[in-house]
Amino acid sequence: MPYETLRIERRNKGVAWVMIDNPPANAISERLMEELEKAADELEADRGVRVVVIASAHPKTFLAGADLKDMIQRGTQFAGNEAGIAEQSARMQRCFDRFATMPKPVIAAINGYALGGGCELALACDFRIMGGGKIGLTEVSLGLIPGAGGTQRLTRLVGRAKATELIFLARRLEPQEALELGLIHRITPPERLEEEAAAFAEQLSEGAVRAMGLAKRAIYAAEGLPEDGFGIEAASFAATFKTGEPAIGLAAFFQKKQPQFLR
């Protein structure tokens, strides 16, 4: 089926690449989420697809996170309606969770910046290979919190203490530090990212991917990612809009200034 914000490339040994191409900034939009979900449905149903790689057509950005202008407009639309805002957070959680629960190995080939929602999509993948840029959950710098599963997945990946530091300080990690923390699995020179991601994907594809899918389901259960954890995150994301801090953080972002939360 045709897509507007991504393309699917079926390559050697049953490896399918999902190339996100949503110019100008590769930001998360409702259209992109719809198409990611459709792509997940298509690739999960295709028995010829053994491994999925999520990558970017943008030269410097893996995924830019939420469209902030759209967020401001929606914030106005949902003013006083926390349930509506929480549903927008839950919407992103459900989208990214399609790859976390897909019974096939999923690799994030991170070619550049993966901040905020971009980091959250990468966290939903089984493996993260990074060729450049920075990665992190930076939402608190805007007066928000991660709302697409980031508070849950990062905590389970690196532990509560380090997740608290990374989220509270909105840390943007270089690849080496991200590797040392266990946030990513491998680092590669930028010019070799596609080659190395392809080689790793083909290595996985040569294995018992049906067994991997079953193991993935069991691992997901062991992680203990309950729906109430995601629900609390979504509700907390919505509650930030009552604090007044997103208005400060988002305005400063567009003015290219440092936000002044201390007044």
From TrEMBL:
Coiled coil: none annotated. One of its GO terms (molecular function) is isomerase activity. InterPro entries: ClpP/crotonase-like_dom_sf, Enoyl-CoA_hyd/isom_CS, Enoyl-CoA_hydra/iso. One of its GO terms (biological process) is fatty acid beta-oxidation. Pfam families: ECH_1. Keywords: Isomerase, Lyase. The keyword Transferase does not apply. Belongs to the enoyl-CoA hydratase/isomerase family. PANTHER family: ENOYL-COA HYDRATASE, MITOCHONDRIAL, ENOYL-COA HYDRATASE-RELATED. This is Enoyl-CoA hydratase/isomerase family protein. It comes from Geobacillus zalihae. The lineage of its organism: Bacteria, Bacillati, Bacillota, Bacilli, Bacillales.
